[in-house]
Design a protein that fits this description.
four-stranded antiparallel sheet; 4 strands; 33% strand; 18% helix
């Protein structure tokens, strides 16, 4: 039996039924990421890779994409 995955989204995503958000979860030592409107597509990464990505976001490295 597979353990249930507890997906978490940002409080900035809005209402609980909002389908325009990115969700994160942790399982088997990996971080998993998916879009709420495409829940079958899951990207996995290490904590270190996620940390580097989040630091890049905070530093504004991806601002040109939005």
């Amino acid at each position: 039996m597979t353990a249930e995955i507890n997906w978490q989204k940002s409080s900035f995503s809005g209402a609980d039924d909002n389908q325009n958000c990115v969700e994160l979860a942790r399982a088997s030592g990996q971080i998993m990421m998916r879009e709420s409107d495409a829940p079958d597509v899951v990207v996995t990464m290490s904590r270190e890779k996620l940390r580097a990505f989040l630091l890049g976001i905070k530093a504004g490295e991806f601002d040109h994409l939005i």
